[in-house]
Amino acid sequence: MAGAAALAALRTAARECQLAAPSFSDEHAAQGLAITVDLRAQFLPLVFSAQASSPLLQLPAELLAVILSRLDTRDLARLAATCRSLCRDAPTPPPPPRAIGPVETELRRRAGARGLDVGSSLPEGATSWVACLLKRDCRDAQMRQVPLAVGLEHSIFVDKGGRLLTCGSDCGSAPALGHAADPAADPNVRRKIGPPTPVPSMQERRIVSVATSYVHCLALSAEGEVYSWGAGDYGALGHGDEGAREVPGRIESLSHIEHIAAGSNFTSSAVDEKGRLFTWGRAIFEDVEENEDGGLEEFERPSGLGYELDAETGSEATPKRVDALSQDRVVGVALGAGFTLAVTDAGAIFSFGFSRDGGLGHGSLESEVLPRRIEALAQTRQRFVAVAAGDFHALALTKEGELYGWGDGRANGQGREGRTPQRVAELIGQRIKLVDARDGCSCVVTEKGELFTWGSTCNYSLGHAGPQPTPTRVAGLSGVELAAVAIGWTHTLAADADGVVWAFGESSALGLGASVTVAGVPVRTPTPIPTLCVRVLNSP
């Protein structure tokens, strides 16, 4: 009762002060403010004075900058939303000098590290620098960070907590699941994992992106470290040897990485925050071709590493920088079977490697050891933001959401082989936000979150009963807004805006549980994986 009486008296006093406020002198106003601050400190002991409302602001500026640099875009957005003192972003900027808070400072640092020009004035229609920079950083991260990856008989996930999970089975002798073998298990029996299961050795790491070929895997941590496991042929794991690894091991020579990719031809790549491209793995692609006499002859082709190697060298077992792109800032990369695509922050696309079916996009079947800009795309005067590659076809996405395809006619979206990029006519009128490709199949996710797939299929991996020569919407996902996708030859995974994963295709690799998984029977309808939510990036 004493507390209630005291509060009633405080309310009465507050009303009297409000009525008398017009007659207050400067001295009275200052005294009233001091009393208010004292009261706040008594009722909310965890809240500091109005001059320092957050414990974080008590830290040295250098230490605060380090803390903010470790947060991903979503956590940075949460911090900005819960602490105005950290944000300091008024709807209408005050006269110069404008106060810039720690969150905006960190977002500007990230943009600068990638060579992005933020500018001095807000884009038309924008009212907040923090909101504008967060949206841009999240959009860029959505292109770089992939929470799903599909191999031949396995799947890899990054859940909402940043844990690395796998399911399915090892591919032949390649330990693709990332789990240490049970010493008591029969070595002649392939390991299998039913539901998506956390990789034990990675539980202390926060993962943001994954990539896999049929036989080797990569994972990227929030700290920019790259881990690899699986088959090590041709040095594809980047550890300096060709040995296989059952559990993920860090590639020590890589740091501050923002994007990773794994190719089906034992090749791997990584892009760091400065836009430098690193590649490693198989350097020579062995091809069989009919010669002038009608016989078969073996040829050696460059395998898309982007640099010259000694004639005796068939591989590069540790990451090596692609110096031919040192004047460009790479923001995305895709690996096919013997060729590589790289997209720069200027919106240009370069290709190099082996050009089977015209996969390099230069109008011929000539191989390219060093990166060469695709002129047919440059002539469109479009700014490209993402690339995808199957074994012998490629796709490129513009900033405006338009899709171009070339190479293998089964999956380039044209329905016929094309040695130079062409706009995918069936998707004109659709604004595309995500693109992926593998072997002889492709897919896109539209701005509305709809999934279109096309190409060859195995076990209903396209979400359709048979092959599709041109993009066709997956009816089984009608009404589901997708935010991530990974397509494969045998199965496909797609995550909705809440992180729920929908799976279809080869049942043993989907992690759906015994009630759904039947040996040899594919899952024909997209089905959610129980209890799994992956880390998807939507605009904060």
Brief sketch in words of this structure:
The chain has 540 residues and is α+β, with helices and mostly antiparallel strands.
Give the terminus-to-terminus CA distance: 45 Å
The CATH architecture name of the largest domain reads 7 Propeller
Question: Helix/strand-derived class?
Answer: alpha+beta
The fold-level CATH name of the largest domain is Methylamine Dehydrogenase, Chain H
Shape summary: elongated
Rg, alpha carbons: 27 Å
Mean pLDDT comes to 85
- Major pleated sheet: 4 strands, antiparallel
Highest CATH level, the class of the largest domain: Mainly Beta
CATH homolog superfamily of the largest domain: Regulator of chromosome condensation 1/beta-lactamase-inhibitor protein II
Number of strands: 30
What is the percentage of strand-forming residues? 25-35%
Total number of helices: 8
Number of domains: 2
Kindly state the percentage of residues in helix: 10-25%
How would you describe the overall organization of this protein?
Mean pLDDT is 85; it is low at 46-52. The two termini are 45 Å apart. The chain has 540 residues and is α+β, with helices and mostly antiparallel strands. A hairpin with a 3-residue loop joins strand 28 (491-496) and strand 29. 17% of the residues lie in helices and 34% in strands. Helix 4 (73-82) runs antiparallel to helix 7. The radius of gyration is 27 Å and the shape is elongated. The chain has two domains: 57-82 and 102-113 and 129-144, no CATH class; 147-533, Regulator of chromosome condensation 1/beta-lactamase-inhibitor protein II (Methylamine Dehydrogenase, Chain H), CATH 2.130.10.30. The longest helix is centred in the first third of the chain and has 19 residues, at 2-20. The strands form eight sheets. Strands 1-2-3-4 form a four-stranded antiparallel β-sheet, with no helix packed on it. Strands 5-6-7-8 form a four-stranded antiparallel β-sheet, with no helix packed on it.
